[in-house]
Amino acid sequence: MALNDYCEGVISGDIEIDCANPLTRGVEKRAIIMNREDIDIDTITRDPNRPNVVSSIVMKTGKRAYRAVIPTQQPFAGTGSTLGDSTVVKTMNHTLGMVILANDPDVCGNVIDGLINGTFVAIIENKYKNTNKETTPGDGIFQIYGLDQGLMSTTIENDKYSTDTNGGWNIVLTEEGSPSSATFLYDTDLATTRTLFDSLTQPASGGGGG
Amino acid sequence: MSDKVNAFGLSKADKEFVHDYYKRVTNKFFHPTRCGRCYEDAIIEMYCKYKKDKTMNNENTGFKLRNGAIVHSRIGNGVLSYKNLTDERAIAFIIEFPDLLKSNKFAQVPKNLQELIANYKESKENANAKLIDLSDSEEKEAVIVLSDEETTVNKPRRGRKKGSKNKQNK
Q1: Which of A39, A192, A207, B5 could potentially form a cystine with A188 if both were Cys, beta carbons 3.0 to 4.6 Å apart?
Q2: How near does any CA of chain A get to the CA of B86, in Å?
Q3: Run of H or E including B152
Q4: Does pTM surpass 0.90?
């Protein structure tokens, strides 16, 4: 909440360690990625009391998110956030790194070509599960990248002799100029949030008629 | 044999069957990946689920939620999501939230939606009427029919003592 007629940067919480939920690094192997233009932006609902929490995100009719499964030791390596270098208003840059361990006409046509010029939103699942939190347990598990400005490609490379990709594709998507340090997906509780997460990648027709 | 598509012997028709029935049996969507045995795994999963539940989720005649859409009930009906989307639940939520259809949560609704709503309301009213009848009759004194003697005796249920029949027999 702004204290003055300009958005003053203030902190409003203690800086301490949550012993009941020890922090652990890394993310899970499974994430989802969606075209930003496929999202019904009007449905994005931020928690009025916690603006870093998004409780609703719905795709446009007939559109869906896509699963990104990276079965490596360190999936989505390179993913993180840094302070941007803007000289007027400081913002954050968010980066999503991934390798695509495939290379054929379908992968290149359906995925790689789209990544070159597209704008994307991704949701990753952190290995850190704050499920012992007193209120809103599990609200730090699903983290959204690219919701403000959209993720855009800054690296797309294919090295046939790369030991990191086994000849696949190395991708880095970056969101520059985000006003928030991080955005999380959380609706009511962890089970509902996971249902929401899973529902984004269902076939575009939705519920299905049996 | 020309339509055999892989070494495991599943034909194209077999795979189409899995696509068609996986959702109906498991209430989940089938995501064929590049793994070699995902169709076989799906068949085993369908078999185990059907063997356990003896039912298929075929109660959805055309409701489809948009991806990511979740509706929270305010009267204890839980959450409406792709996992539990049936006609009955969808209509219950539409009745609870009259503006739900305008909110773009649904990607598709059945063409006979109004008919389904009318049927749902009618069935609920009938169920409520039965409940009222039942509660009324429970409030009155219970009627015990002694079929042996072909007579009817009005007797409070709580007033009947255990073992009284044995004593009469003696």
Answers
A1: A192
A2: 9
A3: strand B151-154
A4: no
